[in-house]
């Protein structure tokens, strides 16, 4: 079922982290095997089959003999909503800390990551703010914020991430100077900088980075020991990282020794941007299509 998992992907992880990683892998591959996942996560094949069964019940993957395959693109939007709930409190804490770095009257870039979605919600009260994004969900989160102007970069719709990718944004970004850019990542290292999986997403992130005076990474503690296929910004170009207090202290110190500001946000369950606000905006974007509520996700993911 395709190439094996990368050697840097081995994780001693929780069920929610494993399932998020499966969804990430299936964004760039058609299928993945139970044996491969068991080796990558250092868990038993029984555990992997249980994880895949949970994802299949949620309508996120299709089970096939020996593994799972990706759904058709039209079935995958709910994956974004599930990823919003994974490490949700950490993402909201990161969002609040990142939003505090933005002042009224600035121009900022947000990528299409789930953490950027929470930052968008935290920026709604700003005044005379300009937000440049390729994320449709990020744009929708700010659409009716009276003090925020949103510039959506054009391109081809990538449904799994609700983002626009391709070469259409190049002209806009070449003529734009943005003060701060906030970028999620699937992996991070001082050797390779910030990394992601999808080539189209990586291409537009690189172009957004080029337009930004300051580049700020936004990701929770689970990404610190991860690697991914492609680097979109080298370590020397990163000015700051906003993460949560669970980030490995020795890796945080390694970045600080490179003169990179690292903000470690304290995670308080239920604090930060209200989940109901996220649900309201999600419902507006998706019309009458139902979003799984927090209890349903907790019952099916966190209890595994």
Question: How would you concisely characterize the structure shown here?
Answer:
The chain is an alpha/beta fold. It is built from twelve helices and 15 strands. It is globular and about 55 Å long.
Question: Could you characterize what this model shows?
Answer:
- The protein has helices at residues 15-28, 34-41, 45-57, 77-85, 88-99, 114-122, 136-142, 170-174, 199-210, 249-257, 275-286, 294-302; strands spanning 31-33, 62-64, 67-69, 107-110, 129-133, 148-152, 156-158, 163-165, 178-183, 187-189, 193-196, 212-218, 230-233, 240-244, 261-265.
- A seven-stranded parallel beta sheet has the order 6-5-4-9-12-14-15, sandwiched between helices. A three-stranded antiparallel beta sheet has the order 1-3-2. Strands 10-11-13 form a three-stranded antiparallel beta sheet, covered by helices on one side.
- It has two domains: 7-82, Winged helix-like DNA-binding domain superfamily/Winged helix DNA-binding domain (Arc Repressor Mutant, subunit A); 87-265, 3-Layer(aba) Sandwich (Rossmann fold).
- The longest helix has 14 residues, at 15-28.
- The protein has 304 residues and is of the alpha/beta class.
- It has twelve helices and 15 strands.
- It is globular and about 55 Å long.
